[in-house]
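== Item description ==
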Amino acid sequence: MSAPAGPPATGSDDKLDRGVLKVAGVVVLGAIMSILDITVVSIALPTFQSEFNTTVATAAWTMTAYTLALAAVIPISGWAADRFGTKRLYLTSLVLFTLGSVLCAMAWDIGPLIGARVLQGLGGGMLMPLGMTIMTRAAGPDRVGRVMAVLGIPMLLGPIGGPILGGWLIEAYSWHYIFLINLPIGIIGFVAAWRVLPKDQPQPSESFDFVGMALLSPGLAAFLYGVSSIPEHGTVNNAEVLVPALIGLALVVAFVFHALRKSHPLIDLRLFLNRHLTIAVVTMSLFIVAFMGAGLLFPSYFVQVRGETTLAAGLLIAPQGLGAMVTMPIAGRLTDKTGPGKLVLGGIVLIALGMSTFTQLEADTSYWLLLSSLFVMGLGMGMTMMPIMSAALASLTHGEVARGSTLMNIVQQTGGSIGTAVMSVILTQNILNNESAAMYFGAVNTQTVDQLPAEAVSAGQSAMAGAFGDTYLVAIVLVVLCLIPAFFLPRSKQELRHDPREDEGEGEGDASQAPPVMLH
């Protein structure tokens, strides 16, 4: 692992000091760019379709290509951080992402735009795991919960700000500006990272796992490609879905056998011997599938059923992020003091309560009720996502943090893709199974709602709302299932965990600079 130039915070001071906050600011800036770009492009899909005279499925590849690039590059970020140093690699990632953004804005057709999005994803995919590693090392073992709460800010701003920012830029200027806005932010982020992030010395003690790379990265990309193709075909039983998904799954399984035999694999699966990390991974997987999948439906309901504009839909889902902003800082402090278990359980209950409103959706459900429910869900989200992440990383030694953060980011990316695909398919089937909903849905997509009789519009909106409600029933079941693994998360602060090998300087350079990490 790359060793920091100076000793990280030991956690003797309970608060996040100025130095840690400066590092956090730099990392959050980069993470905001990466995460915001996922949601901001979703608003531009209809624009891409008309601008480049292409189909919905082809336009959707501007999002899919970015996601696949993220999935492909995340596995190598742990090794690359060791080999080249976290600061140097972070700066390189910022350059790739910013350059990709400029090329996206210069695209003259859908093909070049998709290609530029791949370059963006290669840079953006490393920003989050590197940022988690940098912040965890800077803050020290006793403050993992608090720095994870800070890193949760971009995870909130992405879903909130993406639709709002994208809608405004497209309406006020043009689609090019949803990418060009990353240029000044990227330049500022690069200068700030150059000046603020601590220097570290690369410690290339391990040879690169080329076989693991050849198995895992294309395996994840192929599997997610197949999963991402499900909404386009409306079924899993399709060659374009099954073939890449099964090939990808086979490659991932092959990687598992390879990694268990190799001393220094691309992703260290021996981390799963750590009970706390394993429980956190299972909890995070279920949570991401349910929450990210359900999150996809909120703006669709407001636009397709309630007739709101894209910008208005983005504003209407903002209470969810506001709720999370209330509880996330508090949850970060309490996680460090009492462990994540009780907080996560309480957060899941709040999410389920808030989501229950959406299982009873109608075409005229009160906005006050919906916004209040979104706020309650946000309160629960702030108590759930980052404490789960803290439970995983706080259970690792200093030398395992980079690999652990890489593993958790793979879990998030894969779970989010699966959740989005599953909820899209369920919603589509619910709509197609109802004649009124299917007729209205077709009219919305072809912008011919005005040609329908008033009775057909009313019946279609009501049936569409019911389809959304039935889909949320599936989401709430998945949320409730999260309670099972969450019950086993640590509920108290326990003694420090220390890897004695770090005292011998194995893979860490100067072990005196590597603090033990708390095991909650």
Observations:
- Residues 18-51 form the longest helix (34 residues).
